[in-house]
């Protein structure tokens, strides 16, 4: 029996508290995971897990074995990582998750550069705004916007942006253009709600003073692309990242207002579990994302009013396919393409 393999399988079963989830994240048949644990228990002569139809729990022997196995696996991973780093060839499957708009408009249009640099990494990109349990779902790294909640993860800030306040010309024709924060009392917004149903307030900052405004509205959504579409349809004012609405600002389909009251800075962070800290493939991806964002002032929080990131960008003519839909160069921030 391969003892290291058995330790890895056992540790993953405990991490995700499920034979099925462990099999999925390890890329193994469930029967293989079950057999591995049974053979390990037989070899050790003790029961490591108490199994019921509803849950798994460690026995006292299982807890002691897990402590030792975790230490051994960590040492092995550190040694392997040092040699991998020395060869500068990160490899293997990397599973990441990020907001859909960030992935579709910024990361995926440049992903060919990541593959050119790291051809031995197979990357799986999930796109969602929902909270992810990285251990349970077998995700190596997530990109998230805003203040961080989970202190159990390692976080590295890789960028930032300031949202812009926008609406369509049709909306302004019906409701007028707000000139001050006080004018917002007479306006409606497209609201964004969190997974708990809480509506996000508009945020403004001027001379170091942050002011939050609760906006009335007829429509609320929980998807960034749908949010932009609602603003384009004239359903209200919106606050969103400039990189998401650049083509619409260029075309005049959306117009920025309240430029003197710039929305508060939104940090962009990469988060990953402690047990992924030494992984060369995770480090490679996070370093690449940080480098990618450094190429655009908008992704570093340097949101200069009226700045057009595409003005000095080199023309790109190669479209990128996303879910079989081609995206051309006018669909995203050209600084990072």
TrEMBL record:
Pfam families xrefs: HTH_1, LysR_substrate
A GO molecular-function annotation: DNA-binding transcription factor activity
InterPro entries per the UniProt record, alphabetical: LysR-type_TF_proteobact-type, LysR_HTH_N, LysR_subst-bd, WH-like_DNA-bd_sf, WH_DNA-bd_sf
Signal peptide range in chain numbering: none
Assigned keywords, A-Z: DNA-binding, Transcription, Transcription regulation
Family matches, as PROSITE patterns: HTH_LYSR
Domain named HTH lysR-type: residues: 1-59
Tagged with keyword Transferase: no
The keyword Acetylation is assigned to this record: no
SUPFAM superfamilies per the UniProt record, alphabetical: Periplasmic binding protein-like II, Winged helix' DNA-binding domain
Gene Ontology annotations of biological process type: DNA-templated transcription
Superkingdom of the organism of origin: Bacteria
Similarity field: Belongs to the LysR transcriptional regulatory family.
Name recorded for this polypeptide: LysR family transcriptional regulator
